[in-house]
Design brief:
This is L-ribulose-5-phosphate 4-epimerase. By secondary structure, this protein is an alpha+beta fold. The chain is built from seven helices and eight strands; from the N terminus they run αββββαβααβαββαα. Bound molecules: zinc ion. Zinc ion binds next to loops.
């Protein structure tokens, strides 16, 4: 894929974040790894969503050297790059401070429980919790990978959500689904004690969603 086409794709995915209430003002970011070069396309630092253009997304190598772009890259770039360097299966990362529920779980330092069939299908279990880490270096990336296991998402304590995927679109989809699951869990916890789903039923639901659900060639 040409880099300008990846920039267009990552730009369009950024616009999904405010649309799904996953970001306000300049918060949140999406990146994608280019398959040919391994370079990463990411949001500029402090960029407001309405001012983003495909050609002002920054292109960096896996060590944070700028390949193309006039603007400084996102303050979360080191986290994205740490994940890409340690997970060759990942080519998309998304970070949100979603406006309602998942970030509230981060504030109280709780994983998001797996209480519904939809969440079982998408995630195969709870969204794990990573500990507190300061922004800017590699500490958040280390914390994300320490707890993520087979999950597509991590709640980082006192901060927000990081999601990963084989593509940037898959990472953004996971971010939308995390917030949806967190919101329902939040209401369920207000209503009373949620009914747990047996772990092997969660595994079966996840397997079905991953291998049977949807249109297959
Ligand atoms: Zn953040």
């Amino acid at each position: 894929m040409k880099l300008d086409s990846l920039q267009r794709q990552v730009h369009a995915l950024h616009l999904e974040l405010p649309k799904y209430n996953l970001a306000v003002w300049t918060m949140g970011n999406v990146s994608a790894r280019a398959p040919e070069t391994g370079w990463v396309v990411i949001k500029p630092s402090g960029g407001r969503y309405q001012d983003l253009r495909p050609d002002n997304l920054v292109i960096v190598d896996l060590y944070g050297n700028v390949v193309e772009g006039d603007l400084a890259y996102s303050g979360d770039t080191r986290t994205h790059l740490y994940i890409y360097r340690h997970r060759p299966d990942v080519s998309g990362v998304c970070h949100t401070h979603s406006r309602f529920a998942a970030t509230a779980f981060a504030a109280v330092g709780r994983p998001i429980p797996c209480l519904l069939t939809g969440m079982s299908g998408e995630f195969g279990g709870e969204i794990p919790l990573g500990g507190f880490a300061l922004i800017g270096g590699e500490a958040i990336g280390r914390e994300v990978l320490r707890v993520i296991g087979d999950s597509k998402a991590v709640v980082v304590q006192n901060h927000g959500v990081f999601t990963i995927g084989k593509t940037a679109e898959a990472a953004v989809k996971a971010a939308v689904m995390v917030e949806d699951a967190a919101r329902t869990s939040f209401y369920a916890l207000q209503l009373g004690a949620p009914i747990p789903i047996a772990p092997d039923d969660i595994a079966k639901l996840h397997d079905r969603y991953s291998n049977v659900y949807g249109q297959r060639a």
